[in-house]
From TrEMBL:
Keyword Transmembrane helix assigned: yes
Ranges that cross the membrane: 29-53
Keyword Membrane in record: yes
Protein name, as recorded: DUF6458 family protein
Amino acid sequence: MGVGVSIFFLTLGAILRFAIDPDVLGEAVHIDVIGLIFMIVGAVGIVLSIVMAPKRGHTSEERLMHRENNPPEV
């Protein structure tokens, strides 16, 4: 999950938690709890995206520079 999707979940969760009346769908559905779950998922996604970002592979620009500096042997 990328940072953008995580921010979307965080925002959606905040809207469900704080901006909508908890009893709008009746007592069977606790929309404030669903909002809290979405906020937790969004926060965890942001943290994981930041932690995992340095571990990703080289960018295409770095690969191109490596190829130019180290031409293949023929």
